[in-house]
Amino acid sequence: MPTLRDIMTPGPVTVDPMATLKEVATLMLEQDIGSVLVMENDRPTGIITDRDIVIRAVAYGHDFGTPVTDYTTGDVFTMAADTSVEDAAREMAQRQLRRLPVTEEGRVVGMVSLGDLAVRTGGEADEKALQGISQPTNI
């Protein structure tokens, strides 16, 4: 049974909490990625996506020199690298996550996206996750 270690993208791109929106957007462009982890003392304190930047900052005309922490999603949920892909897909669906930081011995070592589930597992795991992620939330 495949684990997150088998399908993760190693070495996720990270920034410190004082990075600006412009710096993060530039990193996303240079690395061809859609999310960046905000780290403080080797601990993920937030995650920001390209969509967060557009919806939470650009749409309101906010300054691109603003610290990224004003726009991040906090309480980053992570899973261990030895977690089965099936268990991770279930958690991603339940929590409506499109991206999942992967840890080993308490340190972030990779990132798994919904796309990774699709491409690297033959599509079964991403179908389960997508069904849960696509459900509307009761906000």
Automatic annotation (TrEMBL):
Keywords: CBS domain, Repeat. Transmembrane segments: none annotated. SMART domains: CBS. Residues 8-64, 71-127 form the CBS domain. PANTHER family: CBS DOMAIN-CONTAINING PROTEIN CBSX2, CHLOROPLASTIC, CBS DOMAIN-CONTAINING PROTEIN YHCV. This is Hypoxic response protein 1. The gene is hrp1_2.
